[in-house]
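Postdoc handover notes: sequence design on the structure in folder B. Input tokens:
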């Protein structure tokens, strides 16, 4: 299967997907706000488009991917192009919207899955719920929602952080986070594109939610570095955004990407993911 993918907000995850699709013969167009990002987008196998600015040409586009961040008014792509996208709904074979597991809010460490009603506690989660609804409410549009856990991968992970002065392990008893390697995001999206199921929602995370300090400790062990000092959450000096992540505690199930899409995770836990990343350090 090949086609033309138009990717709004062609960032880290979208670039991983385009690197997977380009060798198969796909044409990919990726937008960016920053012209300086154009070489990176080209290197991923996509044609860069500066947007807002240049006009998106959706003629011949078979697949849409939306990675842009929403704001209080909802999704910026729909704010600019909803009428055109709605008019072209029958043209698209697949539309993917990259959301976040923050839509589930806080569940005090209990498990959630795609049937769990969204109860976001943070502003970013409420904005995502609104954007999801906006996309799903367009008649006839084959929308698929992907709720991503914390993303890591080449160039984005704990290794570089360990070398910074002041790195700490923040300890909040009972706190766990789910995460996902960017290569597994790419393979989940590609699997969905190969077997569309309009209206589907998928949690995209690995098999093992763990406390954040466990990830930092293992990364330090792999690099032969001393453990950063442990600091209780209540005493940690954190930005409001960073602190808000600790206000949500849940374990996210990923059975649907396996059972429905047949995905076998490349990195089913943080240990296998970090071991692979060591090759790039």
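Designed sequence:
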């Amino acid at each position: 299967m090949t086609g033309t993918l138009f990717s709004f907000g062609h960032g880290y995850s979208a670039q991983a997907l385009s690197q997977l699709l380009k060798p198969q013969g796909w044409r990919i167009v990726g937008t960016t706000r920053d012209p300086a990002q154009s070489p990176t987008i080209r290197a991923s196998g996509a044609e860069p488009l500066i947007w807002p600015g240049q006009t998106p040409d959706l003629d011949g586009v078979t697949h849409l991917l939306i990675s842009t961040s929403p704001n209080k008014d909802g999704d910026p792509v729909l704010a600019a192009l909803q009428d055109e996208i709605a008019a072209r709904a029958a043209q698209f074979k697949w539309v993917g919207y990259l959301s976040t597991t923050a839509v589930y809010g806080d569940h005090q460490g209990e498990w959630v899955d795609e049937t769990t009603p969204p109860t976001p506690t943070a502003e970013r989660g409420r904005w995502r719920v609104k954007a999801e609804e906006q996309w799903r409410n367009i008649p006839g549009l084959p929308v698929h929602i992907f709720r991503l856990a914390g993303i890591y991968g080449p160039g984005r992970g704990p290794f570089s952080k360990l070398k910074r002065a002041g790195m700490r392990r923040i300890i909040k008893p009972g706190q766990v986070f789910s995460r996902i390697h960017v290569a597994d995001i790419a393979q989940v999206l590609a699997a969905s594109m190969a077997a569309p199921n309009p209206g589907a929602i998928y949690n995209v995370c690995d098999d093992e939610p763990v406390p954040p300090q466990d990830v930092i400790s293992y990364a330090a062990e792999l690099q032969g570095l001393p453990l950063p000092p442990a600091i209780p959450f209540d005493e940690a000096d954190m930005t409001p955004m960073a602190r808000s992540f600790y206000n949500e505690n849940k374990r996210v199930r990923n059975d649907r990407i396996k059972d429905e899409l047949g995905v076998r995770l490349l990195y089913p836990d943080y240990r296998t993911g970090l071991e692979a990343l060591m090759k790039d350090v």
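Context for whoever picks this up: The mean pLDDT is 95. Don't rerun without checking with the PI first.
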